[in-house]
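FORM 12-B: Structure-to-Sequence Request
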């Protein structure tokens, strides 16, 4: 038997150590959700240290196994620098809290070294976009005094910047990190445990069984499953990979082009980030930032999210009809057995328990705590495979711990930007400029907000994207008189949709290897499928009744729901080129014009466009009643 070399053995030992650390981090998230933390410093700094150490030790283990000496040296150096910087923070932490500590030059350089470690770990986990934003923020804090116009500030020394960014609770270890540890980690672990105990495959089986007889088939199943899992996942790309590895090949096998299959999964996975009840954990951050109760945010986000997913269903159905894609044969549909029904309780009961706990007045963290315990107990009771192999629960904790560690690193990096924004007041000055450029035009202000949100959110997970965008651009939209909850949801939508917007489009790049298609092409198709998502935020601003919580009237709600439904139908038929029959270019152009017209906030335009749209809908209905046979496309799907 071949004996393993000592680097390989040590590498495996370190990988096992990292796995133990990841499980500990997951357990910390569960414990803090249920019982709290004895110390705010321990909560923030201690969790960050554990997360960073887990990721670095795992990297050392991998590099040892693959014999990469320079990478090993770099990782060990990063670990040493992290240890020194955290040790120094702990040494002077008590004095920092009293404000009676005078910084030494060594403190500043140690803090800067700690930030360098954080930036390198951010680069490894999320690539360069977030690192570039953080570096630009630090550069702005140090050299903004020489910049022109609104960018200019009074100037800050390196010592002042380090005091705020590293040695205070306004920067790396700021409020968002505390929210992540106390609220978000438990839900990340909850999602991982559901997957580990077998709830994920069962959910997909239910989705396929429910939608299999529709023309969209697997595409509709992908939308349903990705929407449900996406609400619990803080990572769009993680959700794409988790469900897409099963759904994308099946969508392609039914006759959809590969790029379209990837676009469906990317659009559906992204939407989960604004689907209640969890909204990819961004709802908890939003509640902390705005002071608005969590349940109010969920209620405000509910109808817009349902319209978004309805638009995906309609778009996919019409595309399937236009391509003459038939429903899945009945004998190929999954049969839901007693085990599946029992396993569905592992998903349904914890979610129901969460809602009951929150409606009783307890915190979302406590709801997550009980949901985790309920899911684990049900997994052990209902799934014989879990009872035979209970270590899958530990594996679920490990996976959740790794995902949690990455989110902690991302939010800690965003703390750099938050600290600089608080120091310099750039967000308020930027809001003033938008007000000055846009004048009294709310629409122009919203367009600028949309473009800024799409650019600032590119390449980032939902929570960091939301925090950056709302800090820079949130004050601007609120100054225009938009209700706070709608202003924040506006930013969330475009921050999320930046994940499917080329050229970055991280959701499309995640789907590309599975679909074996060009990621930019996938991003374009995803944007086409999800077009209503780019319109809904504007509809919320001009029709606050859609939010159900501000400016609500029954008449306003019915009127906006009618017009938004018409827009979904008109845009979907216009893009697919098929309604009751093949549509020509003039008819498609008319539908796009009417789809926009019904939402233009002028009563006369709304009324006229709505009347014409209802007439077009009646014609479509009559045509379908006469002949429900689909007209196949002129060119085969493979040509696309």
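FORM 12-B RESPONSE
SEQUENCE OUT:
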């Amino acid at each position: 038997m071949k004996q393993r070399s000592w680097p390989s053995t040590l590498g495996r030992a370190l990988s096992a150590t990292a796995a133990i650390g990841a499980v500990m981090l997951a357990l910390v998230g569960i414990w803090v959700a249920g019982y709290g933390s004895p110390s705010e410093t321990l909560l923030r700094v201690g969790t960050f240290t554990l997360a960073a150490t887990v990721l670095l030790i795992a990297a050392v283990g991998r590099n040892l196994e693959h014999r990469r000496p320079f990478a090993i040296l770099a990782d060990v150096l990063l670990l040493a620098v992290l240890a020194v910087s955290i040790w120094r923070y702990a040494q002077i932490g008590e004095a920092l809290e009293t404000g009676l500590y005078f910084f030494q030059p060594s403190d500043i350089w140690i803090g800067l070294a700690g930030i360098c470690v954080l930036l390198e770990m951010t680069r490894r986990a999320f690539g360069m976009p977030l690192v570039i934003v953080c570096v630009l923020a630090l550069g702005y804090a140090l050299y903004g005094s020489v910049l022109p116009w609104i960018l200019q500030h009074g100037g800050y020394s390196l010592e002042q910047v380090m005091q705020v960014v590293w040695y205070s609770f306004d920067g790396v270890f700021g409020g968002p990190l505390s929210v992540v540890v106390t609220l978000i980690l438990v839900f990340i672990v909850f999602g991982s445990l559901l997957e580990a105990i077998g709830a994920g495959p069962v959910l997909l089986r239910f989705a396929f069984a429910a939608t299999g007889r529709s023309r969209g088939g697997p595409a509709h199943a992908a939308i349903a499953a990705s929407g449900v899992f996406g609400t619990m996942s803080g990572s769009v790309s993680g959700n794409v990979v988790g469900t897409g590895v099963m759904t994308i090949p099946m969508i392609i096998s039914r006759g959809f082009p590969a790029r379209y299959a990837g676009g469906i999964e990317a659009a559906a996975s992204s939407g989960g980030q604004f689907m209640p009840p969890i909204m990819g954990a961004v709802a908890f951050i939003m509640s902390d930032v705005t002071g608005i109760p969590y349940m109010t945010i969920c209620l405000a986000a509910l109808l817009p999210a349902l319209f978004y997913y309805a638009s995906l269903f309609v778009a996919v159905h019409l595309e399937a009809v236009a391509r003459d894609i038939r429903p899945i044969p009945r004998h190929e549909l999954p049969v839901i057995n007693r085990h599946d029904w029992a396993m569905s309780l592992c998903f349904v009961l914890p979610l129901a328990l969460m809602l009951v706990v929150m409606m009783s007045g307890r915190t979302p963290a406590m709801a997550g705590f009980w949901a985790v315990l309920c899911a684990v107990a049900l997994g052990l009771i209902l799934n014989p495979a879990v009872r035979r192999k209970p270590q899958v629960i530990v594996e679920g904790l490990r996976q959740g711990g790794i995902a949690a560690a990455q989110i902690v690193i991302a939010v800690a990096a965003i703390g750099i930007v938050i600290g600089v924004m608080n120091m310099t007041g750039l967000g308020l000055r930027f809001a003033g400029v938008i007000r000055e450029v846009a004048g009294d035009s709310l629409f122009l202000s919203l367009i600028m907000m949309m473009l800024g949100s799409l650019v600032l959110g590119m390449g980032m997970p939902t929570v960091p994207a939301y925090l950056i965008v709302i800090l820079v651009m949130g004050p601007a939209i609120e100054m225009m008189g938009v209700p706070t909850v709608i202003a924040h949801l506006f930013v969330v939508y475009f921050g999320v949709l930046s994940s499917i917007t080329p050229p970055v489009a991280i959701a499309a790049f995640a789907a590309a290897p599975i679909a074996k298609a060009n990621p930019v092409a996938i991003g374009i198709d995803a944007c086409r499928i999800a077009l209503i998502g780019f319109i809904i935020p504007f509809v919320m601003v001009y029709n606050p009744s859609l939010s159900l919580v501000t400016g609500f009237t029954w008449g306003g709600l019915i009127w906006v729901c009618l017009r938004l439904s018409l827009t979904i139908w008109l845009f979907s038929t216009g893009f697919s080129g098929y309604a009751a029959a093949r549509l020509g270019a003039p008819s498609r152009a008319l539908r796009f014009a009417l789809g926009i017209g019904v939402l233009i906030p002028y009563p006369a335009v709304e009324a006229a466009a709505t009347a014409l749209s209802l007439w077009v809908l009646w014609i479509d209905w009559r045509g379908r009643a006469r002949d429900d046979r689909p007209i196949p496309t002129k060119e085969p799907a493979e040509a696309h």
